[in-house]
Amino acid sequence: MRSFYPKRPSDEHPGDHVVTFDIESIVDEEPDDGSFPKWPLHRPVVASFLTASLREGSYCFAMTSIVCEPGGESDFYAAVDAQLPTGATSVGFNTRGYDLPVLQLGAIAERRFDLAGLSHHARAHRFGNVHCDLAEMYSLSGGTKRPSLSEICDRLGVPVKTSVHGADVGTLWRTGDVAAITRYCEEDVAATYCAWLAWHGWRHGDDGLIARPLAAFASWIERSPEHAHLMPFATSPLAVWARPRALALRVAATLKAAERRAQQAADERAFSGDPAGF
Predict the structure, then answer these.
(1) Residue 4 confidence (pLDDT)
(2) Residues near 269 by Cβ (< 8 Å), separated by ≥ 6?
(3) Quick one: residue 159, left, alpha or beta (phi over 0 = left, psi -120 to 50 = alpha)?
């Protein structure tokens, strides 16, 4: 018999292979009233992706940014598709309301019907585990007004939008300062990833799910000169908390493993009839 009770919305998202992303876009004509243009009018100019994977107990990171050059739109969407494998959890902020529909419509307009990865994530169910829109998670799936990324990050102790803002992108693109747009997009991705870790740790009641990957992310930034613009994320209050906590968790895990090995050895000696170990 089918239950008449509605199914509880899922907030369960796998965290071992996460792709956090963001896009920056322009419109051909800004509205006269200064309002935000409707999303179908937007054309992406930069898309940034931070891939974070847990491999054999260690976190690995890669940041990739793709510029949509005039005339290269088809290649742009193919490159975006390559960054969104079907086996990953995609993460963003207001991505269901903006980034994903903008990318989906752009790919369709370019007649790119062969992009399985982008299609997979763009069509992800709102309450499924393929895509996590943090604007929905932090607002409890509509339980309260959606916050902005800046509001969430300010509360968490994460830097965000410190120099460039979304309203600046059109001017920067027209003046050819693509590097500034790319840095801004990557900073938003880093901020979103930090917000994701905070949510993921809270969701599972495990501070290790934020402390360990965030400490690893901070170390990765410090080892990557090409990502020097992300250094504020390595020294943010949240990262400053995460690094000693991750170390404490690692020490505790090592001690526990040593105790387990010692107990196993004692059990084996007792089983062999040699409790003294001779």
Answers:
(1) 52
(2) 275, 276, 277
(3) beta
Q: Are strands 43-55 and 17-26 parallel, antiparallel or unpaired?
A: antiparallel
Neighbours of 268 (CB within 10 A): 11
pLDDT of amino acid 2: 57
Cα–Cα distance, 199 to 16 (Å, whole number): 15
The residue count for the chain? 278
Q: What is the mean pLDDT of residues 70-89?
A: 97
From the list 9, 239, 3, the residue with the least C-alpha distance to 129 is 9
As beta bridge partners, residue 91 has: 20, 132
**How many Cα atoms within 13 Å fall on the side-chain side of residue 129?**
9
Of 278 and 242, the structure prediction assigns the larger pLDDT to: 242
Contact assessment for residue 194 and residue 129, using Cβ atoms and an 8 Å cutoff: no
If you search the block for the tokens 């949240």, which residue do you land on? 238
Q: For residue 275, give the DSSP letter.
A: T
* Cα gap 128→219, rounded to integer Å: 32
Residue 89 near residue 131, CB atoms below 8 Å: yes
Q: Give the chain's mean pLDDT.
A: 92
Percentage, residues of the chain above pLDDT 90: 75
Rounded CA gap, 34 and 87, in Å? 40
